[in-house]
Write a structure and sequence with these properties.
Layout (H helix, E strand, L loop, with lengths): L18 E2 L12 E7 L7 H17 L4 E4 L26 H13 L2 E11 L2 E9 L5 E6 L5 E2 L2 E2 H4 L9 E3 L4 E4 L8 H9 L4 E6 L2 E2 L5 H22 L2 E6 L1 E4 L2 E4 L3 E3 L5 E4 L3 E7 L1 H9 L22
Parallel strand pairs: 1-18, 2-3, 3-4, 10-11, 11-13
Antiparallel strand pairs: 2-18, 4-5, 5-6, 7-8, 9-10, 12-15, 13-16, 14-15, 16-17
């Protein structure tokens, strides 16, 4: 079992993110310790400026030693789904396209893999909320298209996005095998389980979540705590690292709360972000924790057939 992580330590460049490491990380080969960068941003109306900010964040994280970097949900624009506005389909782009090509060039130049969440134009009238996984050599490993699409006040995503059709996937990057789930997906344990069963060691959750009504401090705190708790539970139940990266700042009627974080396979929060965050993830913990808590071994897969039904009411 590991001990708690040490306090953050400064890196050489003032503009670079703080680094957090666990003491056990130094006991294992360097190959098993993967520095993960989360780029938490405030978005502005101009997509090109947001892309430039994201590229600068990737640059800083890579300069600090990151081998995997994740951007927040739909990083290239303000969150588009607070209302149903057909003009916002103009914010979408093809994948591959200008944003993935710019990120791929930087990824190859800095030797860092990147998870980039984008408003994908797949075809005329068909759009997805999509995460592109770009490896450290600049190659596009594949896509994850958001499976669970909300339709709630100020989160009218069903107007914009077709549900994903690629399933729950894992991608073998140069640093680790990773899975990606997007925002609303984070509330569904089935999604995290299937992604972990595909081989993911780290689950990335690009996110856009905040407070949309003035319901008071107690409700605000409870909502944030629920969001963090459910993702920590995914880490524990599946024996994986979880990295959630949220946008931050007020946009329209939503106050995005930021507070991006990384949790280890025990569900412990290793660090929370105020901006860009760098956390060293010791992948040896995945094996160690699963040996001690063998939840995957003890699953009764013969008894779960009804999980594919809406309700067990007959």
């Amino acid at each position: 079992m590991t001990t708690a992580v040490t306090a953050s330590e400064s890196v050489a460049r003032a503009s670079c993110p703080p680094r957090v490491r666990a003491p056990l990380a130094m006991r294992y080969p360097a190959l098993m310790v993967v520095p993960v960068g989360l780029i938490q941003m405030r978005c502005v109306p101009e997509p090109r400026e947001n892309l430039d900010r994201a590229l600068a964040g990737i640059e800083d994280a890579a300069a600090s030693g990151a081998r995997l970097v994740c951007l927040q949900e739909l990083f290239r624009s303000p969150y588009p789904c607070q209302s149903e506005d057909p003009a916002r389909f103009e914010w979408a782009e093809a994948i591959p396209g200008p944003s993935t090509e710019a990120i791929a060039r930087l990824a190859a130049a800095r030797g860092v893999a990147v998870v980039a969440s984008l408003f994908e134009r797949r075809a005329a009238g068909v759009y997805h909320n999509t995460a592109a996984v770009i490896d450290a050599d600049g190659s596009l490993l594949g896509l994850y298209r958001k499976m669970h699409i909300p339709d709630d006040p100020l989160y009218y995503e069903k107007y914009y996005f077709t549900p994903g059709d690629l399933g729950f996937r894992a991608f073998r990057t140069a640093g680790a095998t990773v899975g990606v789930l997007v925002c609303w997906d984070q509330w569904f344990p089935e999604a995290a389980r299937l992604t972990a069963l595909a081989g993911a060691q780290i689950l990335f959750f690009p996110t856009a979540i905040g407070w949309q009504f003035d319901e008071g401090e107690a409700v605000d705190a409870a909502q944030h705590d629920a969001w963090e708790t459910v993702q920590r539970a995914h880490a524990i139940a599946n024996g994986v690292f979880v990295a959630a990266v949220n946008r931050v700042g007020a946009e329209g009627d939503i106050r995005f709360w930021g507070q991006s974080f990384v949790a280890d396979p025990f569900g412990r929060i290793l660090a929370r972000a105020s901006s860009t965050l760098l956390v060293e993830c010791d992948l040896e913990l995945v094996e160690r924790v699963r040996r001690d808590w063998p939840f995957l071994r003890d699953r009764r897969i013969d008894a779960y057939g009804d999980i594919t039904r809406r309700l067990r009411d007959t």
